């Protein structure tokens, strides 16, 4: 144990010598051999002793960071299609398992919807599709009809289970008649349609509200550098700046829209994009924060944005966590995504995506993701639970919205993150990245407990 660590432990060890507090931290474990899948274990016991030869995770509930909005998945059109086709009883059971707030539910508390089709829809659509050559600047033909077949009814059943769930809406493309190439793939939003597209967002928010679905936040464009998905649309930072500052933000204010505006919504390799927009004081007044994916760049980029603009929110809006080559390496995505995002100021973690079938369907042709595994695989009424479900479940079941991230030290072999819930419970999530079982101490205030975590495993500890 290093001299620095020993010095840090002096006040803890002193307090431990003064009292022995018999509490029982609960333990929920997932192992890479799948023998334990978010399974409750024998509780630990806080005592008045500590093993100074083992690593120590120090948890300080009095040092707080960001407040959490929730954990969840993208409810793509394809996900909703599989769910709505299940028999009613089986569907109810699955949704209760995923969204239920009781001890048996996963407690998913955040969903991302696509505004129009994403690349995980069976077919491409916007809410204002027109014959070639036609325009509709008044949006008189705006319609949620495609979402009303699957996304809307599934959302209503989810809201019956958890009425407080937060919903983020993200567009993959504007209607083709607003775009520079008149194509659902690629192209850019023509500047003459900036005010029309701003009204498109307002109509979407209000149409969903009429269905009883409140959109808490929107991103302006999913992956604004990406022109290869079907659908997709590029939007440079200077374009998104003008769109928010001169059109979307003022219109939301004028119409009394309280839905939050989140910019960027792309990879961690270009934090300069959101920073350039937030540097404009007029645009920044309308912006709640920035969204990030993790297909490229380090997750620490989120902290760069936080350090430059500490009053603005950070959101982790997309990343896949999938079984690769038959492996169930749970520690890796928990460390990289769940722990990485939250330790870098993210208020949420959303994985891509909630459901697909065994062939990773549906997806669009010519630019749809043909390898995107769902958190659950659905074939008829049969459900298989995949790695992403447990990555999120280790947080969502125990860390409700309005919890705060709190201080904990970390290491390469035992990455971790800690939270304090609104009721005062402490939640510690630990991943063992090493190839061997790790024995370690959990210390907080005047208490310490000895724990062991198998190689490649993840555990959530609560007290």
From TrEMBL:
This is Glycoside hydrolase family 30 beta sandwich domain-containing protein. PANTHER family: GLUCOSYLCERAMIDASE, LYSOSOMAL ACID GLUCOSYLCERAMIDASE. GO terms for molecular function: glucosylceramidase activity. GO terms for cellular component: membrane. The keyword Signal applies. Belongs to the glycosyl hydrolase 30 family. Residues 1-22 form the signal peptide. It holds the Pfam family Glyco_hydro_30. Keywords: Glycosidase, Hydrolase, Signal. It comes from the Bacteria. It comes from Candidatus Pseudobacter hemicellulosilyticus. Residues 69-398 form the Glycosyl hydrolase family 30 TIM-barrel domain. GO terms for biological process: glucosylceramide catabolic process. Residues 403-461 form the Glycosyl hydrolase family 30 beta sandwich domain.
């Amino acid at each position: 144990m290093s001299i620095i660590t020993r010095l840090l432990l002096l006040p803890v060890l002193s307090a431990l010598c003064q009292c022995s507090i018999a509490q029982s931290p609960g333990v929920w474990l997932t192992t890479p051999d799948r023998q334990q899948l978010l399974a409750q274990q024998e509780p630990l016991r806080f005592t008045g002793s500590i093993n100074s030869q083992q690593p120590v995770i120090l948890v300080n509930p009095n040092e707080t960071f960001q407040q959490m909005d929730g954990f969840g998945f993208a409810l793509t059109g394809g996900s909703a299609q599989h769910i709505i086709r299940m028999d009613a009883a089986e569907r109810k059971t699955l949704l209760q398992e995923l969204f239920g707030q009781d001890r048996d539910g996963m407690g998913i508390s955040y969903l991302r919807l696509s505004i129009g089709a994403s690349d995980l829809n069976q077919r491409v659509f916007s809410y204002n599709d027109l014959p070639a050559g036609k325009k509709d600047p008044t949006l008189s033909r705006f319609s949620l009809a495609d979402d009303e077949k699957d996304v809307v009814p599934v959302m209503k059943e989810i809201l019956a289970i958890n009425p407080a769930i937060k919903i983020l809406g993200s567009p993959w493309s504007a209607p083709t008649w607003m775009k520079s190439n008149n194509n659902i793939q690629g192209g850019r939003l023509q500047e003459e349609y900036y005010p029309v597209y701003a009204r498109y967002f307002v109509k979407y928010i209000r149409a969903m509200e009429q269905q009883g679905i409140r959109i808490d936040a929107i991103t302006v464009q999913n992956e604004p550098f990406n022109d290869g998905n079907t659908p997709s649309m590029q939007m440079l930072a200077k374009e998104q700046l003008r769109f928010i500052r001169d059109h979307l933000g003022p219109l939301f204010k004028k119409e009394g829209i309280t839905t939050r505006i989140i910019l960027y919504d792309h990879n961690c390799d270009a934090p300069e994009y959101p920073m350039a927009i937030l540097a404009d004081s007029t645009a920044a007044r309308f912006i709640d924060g920035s969204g990030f994916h993790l297909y490229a760049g380090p997750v620490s980029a989120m902290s760069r944005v936080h350090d430059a603009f500490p009053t603005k929110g950070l959101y982790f809006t997309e990343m896949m966590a999938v079984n690769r080559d038959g492996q169930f390496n749970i520690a890796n995505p928990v460390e990289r995504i769940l722990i990485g995002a939250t330790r870098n100021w993210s208020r949420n973690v959303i994985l891509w995506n909630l459901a697909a079938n065994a062939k990773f369907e549906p997806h669009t042709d010519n630019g749809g993701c043909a390898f995107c595994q769902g958190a659950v695989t659905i074939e008829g009424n049969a459900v298989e639970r995949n790695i992403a479900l447990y990555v999120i479940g280790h947080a969502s079941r125990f860390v409700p919205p309005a919890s705060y991230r709190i201080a904990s030290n970390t290491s390469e072999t035992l990455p971790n993150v800690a939270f304090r819930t609104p009721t005062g419970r402490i939640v510690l999530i630990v991943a063992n990245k090493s190839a061997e079982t790790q024995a370690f101490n959990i210390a907080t205030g005047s208490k310490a407990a000895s724990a062991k975590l198998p190689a490649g495993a993840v555990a959530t500890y609560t007290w």
